[in-house]
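Lab notebook, page 48
Experiment: co-folding of the full assembly
Goal: obtain a model of how the components sit together before planning crosslinking
Operator: M.T.
Materials (sequences as entered):
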Amino acid sequence: MTRWRLIIEYDGGPFMGWQRQDHGPSVQQTLEEALQQMTGEQAPVHAAGRTDAGVHALAMSAHVDVSREMTPRRLREGLNALVRPQPISVLEIEPVADDWHARFSCTGRRYLYRILNRRAPAALDRGRVWHIPVDLDVKAMREGAAMLVGRHDFTTFRSAQCQSDSPVKTLDVLEVERSGEEIHLRSEARSFLHHQVRSMVGCLAMVGRGQWAPQDIGKALLARDRAALGFNAPPDGLYFAGASYPE
Amino acid sequence: MTRWRLIIEYDGGPFMGWQRQDHGPSVQQTLEEALQQMTGEQAPVHAAGRTDAGVHALAMSAHVDVSREMTPRRLREGLNALVRPQPISVLEIEPVADDWHARFSCTGRRYLYRILNRRAPAALDRGRVWHIPVDLDVKAMREGAAMLVGRHDFTTFRSAQCQSDSPVKTLDVLEVERSGEEIHLRSEARSFLHHQVRSMVGCLAMVGRGQWAPQDIGKALLARDRAALGFNAPPDGLYFAGASYPE
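Observation: model returned without errors.
Model output:
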């Protein structure tokens, strides 16, 4: 048996999310079925993060155990051929220790959120960005973002379905940058609550529009109440950007 | 009557190309039908370049005459609402002189070609890049590209369907640059022959793979014979990037 680590890119558009669902296609099911076709084995593929419907990945980390002996290249190319035409691509694959776990060994998760900030809607990036047609105040958004960095009770920014034991998380990074016609929000933490990134981005967009002052972010955080949330940003602009592990 | 200049972004994937076709959807037809819905007028939309099936535009220039009085904002937003769900977006719109012509007044056309140069296929950019899994030699490609810059008879790089009066064109720019996992080829000329960019990129990819020496590009050019062509790059990676006009 070999435990393989996979790094996977996917377009979340056609999927119900990472995790297997009864009611529609998922990234996990697509990969597991491709593996079964190749190896005859039924093995679960575990990921560092379970992205929601419509959320993308630039570099999702995952692992799977395979009994059949194979070279990494054969496994990667076989999977990439078999997942077609689904928009999933196995970027890298390497053997890891048997106790390495994509989710439980993970010590850091990074997300990118892309806002297209111009008058005209997206044509080429439709479904891959959140289109906000009014000019956003990036400086104000940055001030608001700074209030979220650190160890806080993020109850306000947590979905009703969140399964985390505690609402207390440490947000290490929350950067807001203009890049041409886009605004990029990069966040980093050991772990996130369900919908945390989209909730934070939704509120920061209200700051950017001038509907909230930057300090309103701090007030919403202190309220520790989901009702204090502005709103959730749509999944389209969200990308799982990478996972970190101890050496 | 007002003549409007439009700058348009589109994903060429679902279209038979820019130009109206009997056998499938086109960008031109989609825009003309949206205009007719808004204004009740049937007016042709003329573009700086007629992109082929599957070729995209970052900023296509076009014009159309409209009798009904409208503000630029109303026209742009109306068109963008009516072309949905097609991946077309009118980025800018402005009134121009009655004798301004998107095609005939154009003094420069720019194209971008994107090659995804990594082992794994594209997931997020499927249909938007040409995937070449073997490492390309960018330096050699640049040497080959330099042989195409200038005034030449480009018969070798011209499709059988090309309607240009002369195969002699002046290629002002042909740059090859690595950008992360991608290789970008930027070309610029007053005008191009049909399939010229894709033919040049196809041959330069052969140089990048080491199947051709850089000098073979010069030999192919001198042959002035379509049979000397390596092959055409696919439409997926090609973007009409912009058109220039006199002040």
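Interpretation: The two ends of chain A are 22 Å apart (CA to CA).
Next step: discuss with group before ordering constructs.
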